[in-house]
Amino acid sequence: MDRILIEDRILFALITGKDAGHLSRRYGSDFDEAQLEGMRTMILLEAGQDLFDGERICKTLQAVTGAGCCLQPDRRQLLLLMGKMDAGQEQEKALQALDIMRTHYDVSCYAASGGMERPLEEMSSCYQALRKRMEKRFYEPENRILKEDAPAASGNAVYAEAEAIVKAMKQLVRTGSMPELSEQFEQMCETCGQSGRLSPAYIRFLAADLLREICARLPGGNGRLFEKELEQIEAAESFASVREIMKKNITKLEKEVQGNSQVTHREIESVKRYIYENYDKEISVDHLADMVYMAPSYLSHVFKKETGQNLSKFIKTYRMEKAKELLDETHHKIVSISYAVGYPNVSYFCQSFREYYGVSPQRYRDQGKRN
């Protein structure tokens, strides 16, 4: 078997944490482990596109940088192994490799480098650390060499905080509370936008979850619009790109909500008119919501926004005013008035009247007669 192919197989086994011993023993006469022990520096290059001619690129990188080995761990990565270097030399070689990729192959890459004391034992952990560091490109797309001094992820508390914000935002989307939604969105960006706190995959998951809620309230949003925007989120290479996609859709929702404000006013007027005409009957929020094709929670929200009163309080207020009117202007019995204003339980009617006016219906009537 070709010596270079043997080396690549053994190196790939080492960086992925697999047992390379059987390969080394199998090709022991052709593979020099002592040479590998001299490889104390690892430089990982990652492109935003597939590198289809990895073998040719590796040869060029080795020739120009003097790397002892070069292999392609996946379609978008190239890995250089070199001798021991200090931090300044590592950066110089990384910059050289980036320049080769840009000038020779017109490919923009990111680079991360690290050192090893015992290559045969540490190669896998070093490679995984560099892969993890590559996630910083999502937050720092302007930095081509990704350094180790980024703040580490702060644990489950950050994930719980982000989930709570998104949950609150979804509720604001349902109720059409746009100023509050924009405020929460900025808080979400502040929480999620700090490098290293949340993984890029989790950021995309949160954005997709919120996007689904937003698109459900846009014309045609449940179909192609959601799929199109979701594709853009999944392809986004930076946090800034995800932020712009979400901001664009929040703006669309804001315009939709503003455009529907006149319709909402008419719906609330319909609800009020129904209450005026049917206050003597049982009135439930669910029934009113069905009547104007709204969710009960959303109707309650927009009703309060439109009138300044809770829906249930509005109904009670109107019934109490009608009860007072009947007590003032008629000689109907208290039980009859109770039924007339929608209270089949007389005791409950009397309790509600006392809570509202401070006196019982009978005392109110007696006071009126004395006056």
**Major β-sheet, in short?**
4 strands, antiparallel
Described by its quaternary structure, the protein is: single chain
Gyration radius from CA atoms, angstroms: 35 Å
Q: Could you give the count of β-strands?
A: 4
Give the CA-CA distance, first to last residue.
114 Å
CATH homologous superfamily grouping of the largest domain:
ACT domain
Coarse morphology: rod-shaped
| Range of helix content | 55-70%
How would you write the strand order of the largest sheet? 2-3-1-4
Question: How many individual helices?
Answer: 18
| CATH class categorisation of the largest domain | Alpha Beta
Topology-level CATH name of the largest domain: Alpha-Beta Plaits
* DSSP strand content: 5-15%
Overall pLDDT metric = 85
Task: Give the topology string: H per helix, E per strand.
Answer: HHHEHEEHEHHHHHHHHHHHHH
Give the name of the CATH architecture of the largest domain: 2-Layer Sandwich
Q: Give the structural class.
A: alpha+beta
Summarize the structure in words.
The protein folds into three domains: 3-138, 2-Layer Sandwich (Alpha-Beta Plaits); 156-259, no CATH class; 262-293 and 311-370, Homeodomain-like (Arc Repressor Mutant, subunit A, Orthogonal Bundle), CATH 1.10.10.60. Strands 2-3-1-4 form a four-stranded antiparallel beta sheet, sandwiched between helices. It has 18 helices and four strands. The protein has helices at 3-15, 21-26, 33-37, 54-65, 87-105, 119-133, 156-175, 178-192, 200-215, 221-235, 239-259, 261-278, 285-291, 296-307, 311-329, 334-340, 346-357, 361-370; strands at 41-47, 69-71, 77-82, 109-115.
